[in-house]
Amino acid sequence: MSRPRCLTEFAPTKHRRRITPFSRGPVTGQIGDALHVAAERRSNQLLITDRAADIDPGAPLTRTYAQWAELVDEATGWLHALGVRPWDRVAVMKANHFDIAVLAAAAARIGAVPALLSGAYGPDIVRVLLSRLEKPYVITDGAHLRSGGLDAEAVKELTARTVCTTAQPGRRDVVDLNSLRGAPVAAPRLRRPDEPMIATHTSGTTGIPKLVVHSAISELGAAVIESERWPVVGVRPSDVWAYCEPYWHERQTHQMLSMATVTQRMLMLSEPKNLTKMKGLLLKHRPTLVEALPNIYLYWEELARDPDRPFASVREYVNSFDAIHTRTIRTFLDASDSRMPIWLQAWSQSENGTILIRPYLRRNVRRRGHRPPPTQMFGWTVPGFGRIRIVDPATRRKVGRGKVGLIEIKQPGRCLTYIGEHDRHTLKRDGDWWNTGDLGTLNRIGALRFVDREIDRIPSGSAVELEDVLLDRLTRLSEVIVLPVAGGAPVPVYSTHDELPIGPDEWRSAAAGLPVLADPIHIMWDDFPRTGTWKVRRVELRSRFLPDSRALGTGTWT
Question: How confident is the model at residue 220 (pLDDT cuts 50, 70, 90)?
Answer without folding.
Answer: very high
